[in-house]
Write a structure and sequence with these properties.
This protein is mainly α. It has 8 helices and 5 strands; from the N terminus they run ααβααββαββααα. It has 2 domains: 83 residues, Arc Repressor Mutant, subunit A (Orthogonal Bundle), CATH 1.10.10.10; 49 residues. Helix 2 crosses helix 4 and helix 6 crosses helix 7.
């Protein structure tokens, strides 16, 4: 629109969206977690770089090979740095379930993700065949009792009978196959 001759022109005003109005459902809008200052203040040079990279990897951890390439360090140097951080209780080494035996480093205070530990079906890195068999038996019993049943129906009954088990619908779907 053209302003009338007696009215001053209005500047183009675009709405400003403040960070507080962003959706909290969007993981990209979540605040980035920073490494603890108490730890960072006690680390110098390469040790600090190693810790920052591993902390940034979160609960998925970071392998020695990925660290070596990211930081351009030799294997002996990286081994020395990570060993020192593990001994000081800053990092921990966790063995992945898949690929079997691959080790990753992560911040000592973080719980490994289910992709690393194997989730519900694994205990101490080993497939818990007793748990798998029990859940499978329970799911099949429900299918027999209900006749034709969807995974959602079976999940609801299993959850009602044993709410502490905490099995997701995906777990029930897998067992029913």
């Amino acid at each position: 629109l053209e302003p009338s001759p007696g009215t001053p022109a209005q500047p183009d005003v675009k709405p400003v969206i403040s960070p507080a109005s962003k959706s909290t459902d969007d993981p990209a809008s979540a605040p980035e977690v920073q490494p603890p200052a108490a730890i960072l203040n006690n680390l110098k040079g390469p040790e600090r770089e190693v810790y920052e990279r591993i902390f940034a990897a979160g609960n998925k951890g970071m392998s020695s090979q990925d660290l070596r390439y990211a930081l351009k360090l030799t294997a002996p140097t990286l081994n020395k740095l990570t060993r020192a951080l593990v001994q000081r209780g800053i990092l921990k080494e966790v063995t992945e379930v898949r690929p079997r035996g691959k080790k990753v480093f992560m911040d000592f205070s973080m719980e490994p993700s289910p992709e690393i530990t194997g989730g519900t079906w694994y205990h101490n890195g080993q497939l818990d065949t007793d748990t798998v068999a029990a859940v499978r038996r329970r799911c099949l019993d429900q299918i027999d009792r209900l006749g034709a049943a969807t995974p959602d129906m079976v999940h609801n009954v299993v959850e009602r009978e044993d709410p502490s088990a905490g099995y997701a619908i995906d777990h029930v779907s897998t067992m029913a196959q």
